[in-house]
């Protein structure tokens, strides 16, 4: 039936076509809409410009920059600080960084005030103990101090509340690869065992040397566990018979980290490798010590 007519289609804006609103748009009864708004009241610390300047002048590094700006000299130091984004405003030192999203300059924080800023932007209830990156971007929009990213990362890493309540998302450490040795006596592992009951000849210590590739072990009795005795037995009893190794593995005992042992390894071209503290599993010779102890007790 509609096709029997010859209608002319005209465009009518939505504001003028109020008739169609009856079918296509929700009814608006002009009633007042009440919305519940929950707010949290916090007291933010307010500081006067004079107090901020006094705190900045307590920092020797910041004081040096302020004195350079206020001296009025356009020397090399002034050009250096301005090129790095530093500027003065009402006697307070700021720094503008194009790397941040903020278009305003950031307040330069003295060293003794940095932890207070971290407490405000990380530890406070409204901060929510954000991660290192989130905390950094919040602080970097308003403050600046040298090494800020590293300082914030270390602070967040050692935060007791974060370590207590946040889950650990780090992947577990993978398995270590088995070392492949090119030749015998390429890598030696050394360790001291004792003190033991003194023998008739005055020996109280056992100096253990193991070749990590062949598992060959040699034991030497020592009167005193000194760095000089260890270096002497290594040179006279091992190096002169088997040749010089490339690597020498030991724990962090005073005999092995001493200047005598370090100079001996440097002079002979041996790479000295110290295992991590409280991790004896990294030293292969420790396993031989465990086998040696019950044998000596039975003896």
UniProtKB/TrEMBL annotation:
GO molecular-function term, one example from the UniProt record? RNA-directed DNA polymerase activity
Checking SUPFAM superfamilies in the record gives: Ribonuclease H-like (SSF53098)
User: Where, by residue number, does the polypeptide cross the bilayer?
Assistant: none
Question: EC number(s) in its UniProt entry?
Answer: 2.7.7.49
Q: Which GO terms describe its biological process?
A: DNA integration
Q: Which Pfam families match?
A: Integrase_H2C2, rve
- Which enzyme class? transferase
Q: What is this protein called?
A: RNA-directed DNA polymerase
Source organism = Araneus ventricosus (Orbweaver spider)
